[in-house]
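Why run this: before we spend reagent on co-expression, it is cheaper to look at a predicted model of the complex and decide which construct boundaries make sense. The entries below are exactly what would go into the expression plan.
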Amino acid sequence: CVSMLQLPLVVTAQVDVVLLLVSFLSLWTRLTQLGYPNAVVFDEVYYGQFVSLYMKRVFFIDDSGPPLGHMILALGAYLGGFDGNFVWNRIGAEYPSSVSVVGLRLLPAVCGSLCVPLVYLLTLELRFSHLAALGAAVLLLLENSLIVQSRFMLLESVLIFFLLLAAFSYLRFHNAAPHRVKYMGVFSYLLLLGVASLHTWNLIGDRTLSVCVQCVCRAVCLLVVPLLLYVFWFYVHLTLLHRSGPHDQLMSSAFQASLEGGLSRITQGQPLEVAYGSQVTLRSSASQPIPCWLHSHKVNYPIRYENGRGSSHQQQVTCYPFKDVNNWWIIKDPDRQDLVVSSPPRPVRHGDVIQLLHGMTSRFLNSHDVAAPMSPHSQEVSGYIDFNVSMPAQNLWRVDVLNREAESESWKTILSDVRLVHVNTSAVLKLSGVSLPDWGFRQLEVVAEKHFKSQSVGWTVEEHRYGTSQEQKEREAELHSPTHIDVDRKISFWAKFLELQWKMLTVKLEDSEHKYSSSPLEWVTMETNIAYWLHSSTNAQIHLIGNPVSWGVANLSLLAYQLLAAIYLLRRRRGFKDLPDGAWCQFVCLGCVCVGGWLVNFVPFLLMEKTLFLYHYLPALCYLHLLTPALLEHTHTHLLSRATHRRALCVCVTAVLVSVFLSYRTFCPLTYGSPELSANQLQGLKWRDSWDILYRRR
Amino acid sequence: MAKEECITQWNKTGDTSTLRNRKIFPTSEKTLQTPSTLLSKDKNSQNAGHTQCSNGTSAQLLAREKFSKDPPTRVLLMLVVGLSFSTRLYKITEPPHVCWDETHFGKMGSYYINRTFFFDVHPPLGKMLIGLAGYMTGYDGTFPFIKPGDKYKHHNYWGMRGFCAALGSCLPIFAYLIVLELSQSHSAALITAILLIFDTGFITISQYILLDPILMFFIMAAVLSMVKFNQQRCSPFAASWWLWLVLTGANLAGALGVKFVGLFVILLVGLNTVWDLWRLLGDLSLSLVEIAKHFLARVVGLILLPLFLYVTIFAIHFVVLNKSGPGDGFFSSAFQSRLIGNNLHNASMPEYLAYGSTITVKNLRIAGGYLHSHWHLYPEGVGARQQQVTAYLHKDYNNLWLVHRQDANESQSGTPDLVRHGDIIRLEHKETTRNLHGHLHEAPLTKKHFQVTGYGINGTGDTNDLWQVEVCGGQNGDLVKVLRSKVRFLHRATGCVLYSSGKTLPKWGWEQVEVTCSPYLKETPSSQWNIEDHINPKLPNISLSVLKPHFLEILLESHIVMIRGNSGLKPKDNEMNSKPWHWPINYQGLRFSGVNDTEYRVYLLGNPVVWWMNLASLGLYPIMVAVVSIAIQRGFSLSQKRIEHSHVLMREGGLLLFGWLLHYAPFYTMGRVLYYHHYFPAMLFSSMLTGITFDILLKSTDLILRPPYSDRLQTLGQMVLLFSVLYSFYLFHPLSYGMTGPLAHEPGSTMAGLKWMDSWEF
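The model came back. Tokens follow.
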């Protein structure tokens, strides 16, 4: 192998052959029998839902990340002719013949295959030999976990591909510094693609940025272009998804109104300006704990609560998270008796004093100096009933339009955020965030509070119509009928974009422990596996299990690098230069890319409180596989001076490669799901006690 | 590097007119003009560095001597001391009732006086000192501290408050000294001291029986000693060098001994030390032996000594608290047996587990809790809707279980049979008569495990109620020793093992700990239990001497219990919890006392002018550093004064900024419930940074104006700063010293117009 390292020109001719061979092998391992199993495998059940929603153009929120990954999967599905008509509800469910399974899985698989040649090129860019590059490619090629993760409709392979591509492009650009202008276009173009994996990308961008001080262009490329692209993908996302869907309720009224068929179906044609006599539903603009509407019903507060405190025993006012006819309120002028909108309508403006009449029970919204049921520091809010106990009605409310600078002084449907201030006590109507006990049907408590925090005090009119019936009976019928009349509402892309960003940061979809979830520290030693799929009648199964030998080697090389680096650093500090400057730079660069890449892809998980799985470790693992051969080459050229030692190293490397291949072969049945193994053979594959391998009892 | 240090020292200290004129100092001129090259290529100057160091030292010592005898230093220091103590001790006994967390820490101080064992999530030093202060000033430990608002009446509480206030008064003084040491500028130090002295937040938090003033005292003392130690680098191994090293170590132990937040300052000192050692290692004139000496000295002073002190604190804690109290249940049976008054202290009970006995079963995981059940069912959607089985940390009658045979017929007379390894038993919950039951449903939190429930009535159930007893390390036929045997319960039907996962159940489970049945049969403390109480009237009681635990075991156990307790403090659903980003903008304070307009109200809120100044300086600092470093990078020739400024700004400012980050950023990753007062240690660093930043900013006025005007502008700026802080303190002082009457937004309030943010609650 020494001679190989010293053949500059002949090697270049060989590169393409090796690269082609590696790519071919990679495609072969990842693409054969892509349609098997013809069933939903593990997280396909999760991503599949989003793909279907894309196909149907239905809006959704996913807190796991920016939408590009989902879009790529959807693109594959679209090209494969998938129409979105499949119910993703169960792992192991068979796909009908109408679904093109290969189509769904092809793009991730291709991305996964391309990682192998990319690693080859990346090693070359780090200025290591072709042999080291080949070694890295082989390690990646024979990594069972990467093969499994690439072969299904999952995002990790796409993410890894873009990560490696970004690292590669930057190094390519850096090495080609004299021809900067020429490569700039290529670089930024590749960068466009790299933006996909934004979170990780930013870290790499920042780290590499420190190298360049003078060139603003780089900053533009590394910061502005990604940012623009990020926005662009959201633009595409929001343009594609214009129908209402399952996550509508999380968004503001204005956002929902912009979706086709959602709130807009109900609200289309509502009058814009709220007037005296309007019938409205009031939605709390606080999204904590859940979105809900101001509500009342024909049940009174209990005379005494569980803890012995007394109440006013007047009618309950709550906040209710579902649409209901009891959510309707009528806006009344305190000086007039009529409950219909006069013509022309008299709009309500900022600062006006109103009364709010509950549509179904005709009680006025009232508050007084009685402690609220669950939050004794706040005032109770009730539907006023006169019990003749010298407790006069205090039912006047002042309207404060909170966003009057941005919108207008008058109270508008959906657009205005309104604070209702109790005139007698200057307390503010708000959600306390606590649920009432059983007597309140577990609805949310509404209180009036003097010392409020600025959040959770706003209310928006969501459904709105002009009342026309003076009689109570007619009015009830009117309330039951759906709203209609015409006006169209739109909000700008930027408003939608920002709202979506905010929601993605704050929304927590239920997270609980999963049967196969694991903690980051278990990943390094591969304590756990994930069962992806089990045949419905036989023992054939697919598991996410890495190649144990190469994981061990990867961990060893990580340790070795750190040890070596520490020794080098200490010795250099004392003035001993073990390495020539060029080799030292190469060594440092290797550490920055590989160990740095491993760190930024691993350490953040230690701080996360999400449910985590073994596949989250795969990007970090790729960097370690990149490190191993390079480190061996370093040892070969700089640490071992005796020919016998070098030969011994070559032998060791060969032995390791052979054992990597053997262990790859051993785990193949669990990687590809065929052939079926007997219970004994499966038992034999359980190399660790903590692995869950499934057997069918027959 | 060493050379450069000393030269800057020399130049800084000689900041008088005579020395300023001596610009042409042959060696310093060259080095000072190229600080950037020095920073990166320190090797060049290293050889010369050592000799320079000794030269520099004598000059520096001379200057230092002169410096400390400088009358303004003393006067200013006395002024700072006087103001600091007077602001904090003013109205110290007001209000004469329990405020906010005094209910906890005062109570714990009383526990020390009464020698009752308790459990708290913080290490003991702070509470020990509070207890000591109370003891010395005649407090007898009898006040119950039940809830905030309780009147102290005749109890002597002023001593404990005064002690905390005295430590809190040291903070501005320490800050003054630190900044003076770092920047050698009186004005910077004075700005810092004024910011801290007149901050209502610091006054309030210092005036009550709390851990925070004690914690911050140790943090600041540690930083001050560290800075002083850094200044001694030119005379290594001298007496003063050792003194500051030891003081640093002692204060670190103190900080960690009060709260775990002390870890952050340990990190700060640690990294500073690593950097220092790295510098020494690069000094090729030092032999490896000398470097080893340096290294060992720091290991002794900064690791071994603090560790020893920290362990000593715990030793005192365990020696003092020798009576049984509210914290017993958190600890293992062995630990409890050493507490006077605990039922395990000199316990006597039947020695071997027998059928028909009433027992409590304790998990062997540290703070594992007792096997527990209660009438409540698992809620809809969580496994089968049967009765909950949990692990509970407190002693309770619901922890009692009856031991039965597999078949219900028990011999009614004679001595009961003993349970042996391999026997199959049923455990019946004494209170609810349900059997301990397992089945193939997912456990509520640990989805890999199976659910454990209470099932059946009056002891009749099904085959899923059968458990096989296994003594760890035993064979068939071995007896089960109470308290001493480690027992596992294997579920007969599914083959899983009874397991306590340590995860806290949600509200429906009363935040008790989950109990599951684990299919993984590896022996871990989580799956091992011991029999703690054992009641069987038919058997003779034998006095059991439980193995007394080793001190280190107790230490480890109490730490794990504390860490669990800390991470278990999750925010409640209906509680408005404070977020870290609220803190620097002074978004919302804490009510210390009183809510309504009739009550005496104290509200913990920083002086907004001070806090927003700090916020501004946090923004200003990076900009100034960026400007300076770009200027240096581009090779502009700068005057000597500016180079000194840039040094102070980048190096010392960087240290303070780093301290701020260390005390602030980690809160973003914490899952536990957070409060406004957690920001105060970070705020100390932020204020010191403000002192340096504003001082240098004001001294750079000559960039825009010519000399006489620039000096005037500088004085004007300092005056504006001073008066705005003083005036805002005058406006906001009722926050600390108490308000009565209407609330701020109501008419006739003394605080009218001062509610600048809607979120403030006074």
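The first helix of chain B runs from residue 2 to 13. Chain B touches chain A at residues 43, 278, 281-282, 284, 288, 442, 445-448, 520, 522, 573-574, 576, 588, 595, 633, 669, 671, 743, 745, 758-759, 761 (CB under 8 Å). Bring this page to Monday's planning discussion.
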